[in-house]
Amino acid sequence: MPLKDLLVLGNPVTITRRGDPVLHWPCRPATTFGPELWNLLCTMFATNRAADGAGLAALSREWKPIDHG
């Protein structure tokens, strides 16, 4: 799917905020980069647009924070 579609497809969802217990649930690692992951990305971009550009973040034990200071 073309990258330009990423910006127009997908439906926004409610943003889960810090403190919600669901944020402590383990998630599956992305191992297959197919339609399911593409749909998730489209949903994330649609949610970002609907929230007037609010940032979306994900944490993982494998990722390290970046110091922007």
Task: Describe the protein's architecture and organization.
Helix content is 29%, strand content 0%. The longest helix is centred in the middle third of the chain and has 16 residues. It has one domain. It is mainly alpha-helical and 69 residues long. The protein has 2 helices and no strands. It holds the Pfam family Pep_deformylase. This is Peptide deformylase. GO terms for molecular function: peptide deformylase activity. Belongs to the polypeptide deformylase family.
Tally the structural domains: 1
Helix/strand class: mainly alpha
Number of strands: 0
Beta-strand percent range: under 5%
Radius of gyration in whole Å, from Cα?
14 Å
Q: Could you report the average pLDDT, rounded to the nearest whole number?
A: 76
State the helicity in percent bands.
25-40%
Order of helices and strands: HH
- Per DSSP, the total helix count is 2
Low-confidence runs: 60-69
Rough shape? Answer: flat
Spatial separation of the terminal alpha carbons: 36 Å
Q: What does the main sheet amount to? A: none
Brief rundown of the structure:
The chain is 29% helix and 0% strand. It has 2 helices and no strands.
Topology:
Elements: H1 3-6, H2 35-50
Overview features:
flat, Peptide deformylase, disordered C terminus, Peptide_deformylase_sf, 69 residues, 2 helices
